[in-house]
Each structure stands twice: as C-alpha cells, then as structure tokens.
Amino acid sequence: MFVSLMVFSLLFAGRAICGRFEEEKDEKDYALHYLTQYHYISPTRSGNHNATKAIENFQKFFDLPVTGELDEDTLYQMNKPRCGLPDVDVNGERFKRYATLGKWYKTTLKYYMTYGDDMSHAHQARIMARAFKYWSDAAPRLNFAKTNNVGAANFRISFGRRAHAGVSGERQCGHPFDGPGRVLAHAYFPSDGRIHFDNDERYTETGASSGWWFWKKESQSLLAVAVHEIGHALGLKHSNVKGSIMWPTAKKGTPTLHSDDINGIRSLYG
C-alpha cells in the first residue's frame, strides 16, 4: 500500500512538473509571437532581435517595472484585449507621446459600414457617427458623412472573423483575427481607409462586466474601440501616454480624448 501511494505521488508530481513546463513553454511562445507582432522584435534585419531587450522595451512602453523577464505583470499586460497594430517602429523603438503616419489631403471624408452581430444596425450606425465626431470636434476642419455607396467612401468599416476580408469586393486582409479576446480590431493608415472589427468579440456601446468567476460576462466598448481605430485611419499611431485613446489596450466606458490625442490630430489637420 505504501509503495502504491509513493508511486502514485511520484506520477502525480511528474505530471504536475510536466504540466508547468508546458505552461511555461506556451507562455514563452505566446510572448515571442506578441513581441514580434507588435514590432518589439523587429520585422527587419537591421532592427532589434534580442528577446530580453524586446521585453524591456515592452515594459518601458507600458510603464511596467523593467526586468527583462516574463514576469506576472508583463504576461498580464500582454493578455489584455487590444488593437492589432504595432506599438513601436520597425526598429523596436519606443514612441514618445503621439506619433503619426500619413494623412488625408482633404478634410471632408465619407465612410461606408457593414455591421456586427451584437446590436441593431441603427444602434451601431449611431455609435460610429459618435466615434467620428470625437475627431471632428478635436480638429474642426474635419467633416465626416456616412454614405451607402461603397465606391464613394474614404473609410470602409466591416466586421469579420479569423481570416477575413472586409466590405463586399474588398481583398483578403493580411492580418487574421484570433477569436474572442486579445486582438479586437485593426485599421490601415491613410489613405487606405479599411477599418476591421473582430466579430468574435461581444460588443456593447461602452462595454460592461457582469457576473463573477465562471459566470463572468465581458463586453467591449464599440465606441472606444471605434474612436481608437478611426484615429489610426486618420494617421495616428499608438501612443505611450496611458490616458490617451491611442494607448494600445482597450478601455471600457465612455471615452475621452487626452490632450495627447488632440495634439496629434491637430498636428495633421489643424
């Protein structure tokens, strides 16, 4: 009996060690994928390819203790729902305050949209109009109007899952979504005009959390995510200013533009 218990204990301990080893391997694999996707590990030959430096740059960007290790705080930040665009340039360098990439050379712009599954079309249209208004209020020369003619649109807004295209006739997107959580949406810089939302996410107007533990239900703020992605489509990159709408990770509640966002959009459109 004692021998049987000892054998069982050793088998259980062995499985626990193997399980922890696999978990650590999965964490490292995910972290390397994350650091590459968001350019902390450079997509170019000349940029940063040192994983420790990449982790340090990530920690600096998100104002975490700089350890160069995949510690609990770092992994927690990496697992937050967020935008799918890179945080830093191709050399893995940190952006300071707002940064821009391209602009529209006209200020009256039209958008066409298709719809996600979570709210009525009318509700989603109202949210999107409200999201565009954030930017026209900040830069009054900007003027946005919804159009039902996709050929006349500067911005094309769509919802898709995993490997996705966009509005009818649009080519396949080169950046597939990853299912619920993590990447919520992405957009293309001027003057491409594509704005894509992950239809596997659960969206409400301003996001919510209800229940607890296994029964906890989360929804993302379509308004906040839309304001952020429209910022990209207008030419704003991610900012490392934590209170800004162009901060990479998702926010719930009614969004507000930080002075960093306002300074950024006005640097482009006055």
UniProtKB/TrEMBL annotation:
<keyword id="KW-0645">Protease</keyword>
<dbReference type="GO" id="GO:0004222">
    <property type="term" value="F:metalloendopeptidase activity"/>
</dbReference>
<feature type="binding site">
    <location>
        <position position="198"/>
    </location>
    <ligand>
        <name>Ca(2+) 3</name>
    </ligand>
</feature>
<keyword id="KW-0482">Metalloprotease</keyword>
<feature type="binding site">
    <location>
        <position position="232"/>
    </location>
    <ligand>
        <name>Zn(2+) 2</name>
    </ligand>
</feature>
<dbReference type="InterPro" id="IPR021158">
    <property type="entry name" value="Pept_M10A_Zn_BS"/>
</dbReference>
<dbReference type="Pfam" id="PF00413">
    <property type="entry name" value="Peptidase_M10"/>
</dbReference>
<feature type="binding site">
    <location>
        <position position="164"/>
    </location>
    <ligand>
        <name>Zn(2+) 1</name>
    </ligand>
</feature>
<feature type="binding site">
    <location>
        <position position="196"/>
    </location>
    <ligand>
        <name>Zn(2+) 1</name>
    </ligand>
</feature>
<feature type="signal peptide">
    <location>
        <begin position="1"/>
        <end position="18"/>
    </location>
</feature>
<dbReference type="InterPro" id="IPR002477">
    <property type="entry name" value="Peptidoglycan-bd-like"/>
</dbReference>
<dbReference type="Pfam" id="PF01471">
    <property type="entry name" value="PG_binding_1"/>
</dbReference>
<feature type="short sequence motif" description="Cysteine switch">
    <location>
        <begin position="81"/>
        <end position="88"/>
    </location>
</feature>
<feature type="binding site">
    <location>
        <position position="201"/>
    </location>
    <ligand>
        <name>Ca(2+) 1</name>
    </ligand>
</feature>
<dbReference type="GO" id="GO:0008270">
    <property type="term" value="F:zinc ion binding"/>
</dbReference>
<dbReference type="GO" id="GO:0006508">
    <property type="term" value="P:proteolysis"/>
</dbReference>
<feature type="binding site">
    <location>
        <position position="179"/>
    </location>
    <ligand>
        <name>Ca(2+) 3</name>
    </ligand>
</feature>
<protein>
    <submittedName>
        <fullName>Peptidase M10A</fullName>
        <ecNumber>3.4.24.80</ecNumber>
    </submittedName>
</protein>
<feature type="binding site">
    <location>
        <position position="186"/>
    </location>
    <ligand>
        <name>Zn(2+) 1</name>
    </ligand>
</feature>
<feature type="binding site">
    <location>
        <position position="178"/>
    </location>
    <ligand>
        <name>Ca(2+) 3</name>
    </ligand>
</feature>
<dbReference type="GO" id="GO:0030198">
    <property type="term" value="P:extracellular matrix organization"/>
</dbReference>
<dbReference type="InterPro" id="IPR001818">
    <property type="entry name" value="Pept_M10_metallopeptidase"/>
</dbReference>
<feature type="binding site">
    <location>
        <position position="201"/>
    </location>
    <ligand>
        <name>Ca(2+) 3</name>
    </ligand>
</feature>
<dbReference type="GO" id="GO:0031012">
    <property type="term" value="C:extracellular matrix"/>
</dbReference>
<dbReference type="InterPro" id="IPR036365">
    <property type="entry name" value="PGBD-like_sf"/>
</dbReference>
<feature type="binding site">
    <location>
        <position position="118"/>
    </location>
    <ligand>
        <name>Ca(2+) 1</name>
    </ligand>
</feature>
<keyword id="KW-0106">Calcium</keyword>
<keyword id="KW-0479">Metal-binding</keyword>
<dbReference type="InterPro" id="IPR033739">
    <property type="entry name" value="M10A_MMP"/>
</dbReference>
<feature type="binding site" description="in inhibited form">
    <location>
        <position position="83"/>
    </location>
    <ligand>
        <name>Zn(2+) 2</name>
    </ligand>
</feature>
<feature type="active site">
    <location>
        <position position="229"/>
    </location>
</feature>
<feature type="domain" description="Peptidase metallopeptidase">
    <location>
        <begin position="100"/>
        <end position="270"/>
    </location>
</feature>
<dbReference type="InterPro" id="IPR024079">
    <property type="entry name" value="MetalloPept_cat_dom_sf"/>
</dbReference>
<feature type="binding site">
    <location>
        <position position="238"/>
    </location>
    <ligand>
        <name>Zn(2+) 2</name>
    </ligand>
</feature>
<dbReference type="InterPro" id="IPR006026">
    <property type="entry name" value="Peptidase_Metallo"/>
</dbReference>
<dbReference type="InterPro" id="IPR021190">
    <property type="entry name" value="Pept_M10A"/>
</dbReference>
<feature type="binding site">
    <location>
        <position position="246"/>
    </location>
    <ligand>
        <name>Zn(2+) 2</name>
    </ligand>
</feature>
<keyword id="KW-0732">Signal</keyword>
<keyword id="KW-0862">Zinc</keyword>
<comment type="similarity">
    <text>Belongs to the peptidase M10A family.</text>
</comment>
<keyword id="KW-0865">Zymogen</keyword>
<dbReference type="GO" id="GO:0030574">
    <property type="term" value="P:collagen catabolic process"/>
</dbReference>
